[in-house]
Fold these 3 entries.
Entry 1:
Amino acid sequence: MEKEPLSQFIQRAYDAGHHWLAEASEHWRTHANRRTIIVLILGGALAGYLYVYVIQPPDNFPVATLVEVPAGAPLKAVSATLEEKSVVRSALALRILITLMGDERTIRAGDYVFKEPRDVFAVARALSIGAFGLEPVRIRVHEGATTKEMAVIFSRRLERFEPENFLAQARPQEGYLFPDTYFFLPNVTEDSVLQTLRQNFDQQVSVIQPQIASSTHSLDEIVKMASIVEREARISADRRMIAGVLWNRLARGMALQVDVTFLYTIGKGTFQLTTKDLLSDSPYNTYRYKGLPPTPIGSPSLDSLRAAVMPTKNDYLYYLADNTGVTHFSKTYAEHLRKKRLYLGT
């Protein structure tokens, strides 16, 4: 047998080796693609799981609600509390993120408010930098509001406000809590609200203090009268006239006979009152008892306070408002009855 030339042998060996390498490469490439796909699928599944069950906000995230982080509380306890309150889905994830952002002792204690659902990264950052999100709440206390009405107004807007505690402190100050537009942080307490309203009253009254000092009435009498005038009329001129009429009646020893005091006690207006109501044994019944009521019947505006301390001098003893809101004044009871028939048909 003839020997194969060396060159042919080398060529055949090269071709065989090249073919083997090509097959091996193709085999590796095929399996590598499979591995890549598997890794991507697993990675995507893991990322989806982490987002759904760890990162994204809980479904019942407490939007616009106070979230307290107590001073001195350890990170573990804070994280557990925030998970319980549905601020985050995973207390562990929150702890890890805050630790990675810096020393875990850097979390800022206080009240937090989130306007919209935030993921665990945003919550961790807020706690780390103290982004409390607290913004003043605008609250309007209308003129003539009673302390009972105020308790309802504030309790609807302020989470830390305790209406019962407010009423216990506010009732003795009926009429001395000024009606106005206020801006309070959402975590303010009833004590701060009470103090602010009273300070505003003192500041407003200081404007008319010289007139009060030169009048023949005490501040308490003026506030009581102003609280009645506040309910009796809306126009400054009418308020000053009515104040003059009511001071006239008191000076003559007459009962005030105003219906608005019943609004304070039983919640009834003029056209709802019965004979039984008018005979009731209440110290606020100004038909039965002479003089001013025991307390103011609401919080008067500065305009009503001015009217009470600077009334329009007149000789009238009676007044009534017709169906269009115009007030008519009378000097005698007979004249008053005639105007009732004329303007009210009674």
Entry 2:
Amino acid sequence: MTNKYKNIFHTLVLFALIFFLLHSKILSNFVWTFPELFMDFKGPINWLECHSLGFNLITLESVDCGLGERIGQFNYGYAFLNIPTMNF
């Protein structure tokens, strides 16, 4: 095989290995994992959705904005709330 095909083959093998490890229970034996993949992004996404619905997040108590769960305390400034969200 030429060098170009070796690089493509190694990339595909590496991608398949990472995909397999992310979707298997093997990784949780070595690293602490969340119940869902990328669960740590749920909080900031919920903050942005509540802000787009018009709720005031700059409070000390948790907010119930109708997303099915209470949103915890928001500890960031207004610059974070200007991140655009996609509704799909």
Entry 3:
Amino acid sequence: MSTNNQNDAFNDLFSLDSADFVKKQTSKTIEVFAPKAKEGKDNVYKAIIRFVAWHKSPKQSHVEKYIAWMENPMTNEGFYVDCPSSVGKKSVIQDTFFKLYKSEDIMEKNLAKQKFSRKETHYALVQIIKDPNKPENVGKIMVFKFPKQIWTIIASELEPEVGVAMNPFNPMKAKDFLLNIYEKGVYNAYDQSKFVGENKAIDFQLDGINNTYDGSDDSKANFVSWLEKNSPNLDNYRFKEWDEETTKKVVDIISLVVPSQKMVSEVLVANQLSQYSNSKPKAVKEESIDEDYTDLLSSAKSGNASNNTQASIPTNTGSDMYDDL
């Protein structure tokens, strides 16, 4: 040990402070806004938000994908995984669901819904305007994670049956959104949420100064600066390709949960994933499965097949980033 280090250690012996042994708490920044009814007053969560564009790619300000909860019955490890059907790719999760759901065995049908169902999930950036449940979020830009019911409300404004279309991502003229989440049985219901008020320019605070977007060059520059400084990275929430570890975990779960080894072999071969199985399945003829089982379940309950029509966000054709915003 050098002389300097020895002197430092010697001096520390006689200058110890209680704070030197207190573990410092580090606060993790929460960027996802995914409120639940139970978090609100009397189990009703209300907040006012404003949708904002993703400044790095304004025409991709809305993310839609399917996610599935996978759980290993041996280790009890559970995790969410992006379903490849989100980007039009063949999915072993989707194929397993259909194999089980089309079975005449009621237990296998239930197993499909309990273990291999996927959920349509959406993401967009929002400014929190008013939130009495979590006032610390007011003024922040957060990643709003929301279900299909909310997207249906947004889509009805983008492509209304009557009236003029409204783009909620437009900083110059768009409406605020009233988020109203309440409990319906054991689920969160969103059907009472709606756009409120009149179209107006967005208000924001940059470096402690209140601003209202007015379309001028200075206002555009300030607005983009505000987005750049405060926006979480929306690209982190887009579909993620599976790595080797994720693929192996999913295959292990299918092998453990599905009771029929023949069925396991069929879905693994059909998805070219046999190499990830501990027991090599025999080659079988690939079966094409291209239905959307989310709608299949809905139709099973209602008796009618639902039409899953998605609306696209109308945008300007200009190539300039400001124009896109």
